[in-house]
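Second attempt. The first submission of RNA-binding protein 12-like had a stray character pasted in from the spreadsheet, which I only caught after the job came back as garbage. Lesson logged: always re-copy from the clean sequence file. Corrected sequence (115 aa) follows.
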Amino acid sequence: MSASINLSIVFVIVAVLSLSSISTSHAARSLLQLPNLPTIPSLPQPTLPKIPNFPTTLPPLPSVASLPTANSPLPSLPSVVPKMTLPPMPANPLPNMPSLPKIPTIPTLTPPPSN
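This time the job returned cleanly.
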């Protein structure tokens, strides 16, 4: 039953696609058979302003004396580091957690030996 429904759905999809293909090809053929259209006149080209010349030389690089060196000393760390402390433990002891009840097991039966 479901196979015939699937087959009919596929048949409908193929039919719709082929009908749309026919109408598309008919439209393309009718566009090709149109008479020659008039040409569009070319527009006048605007005059562009002249681009100024940019300098071709690069600005001077910073001197080596102003750059930091590899042997320069690092800034020192602060001498006073705050100590991390934990909050105090509660005075009353924690309650005991109840244990889970024991689940009874079902004995397994062995099949009788076959002769």
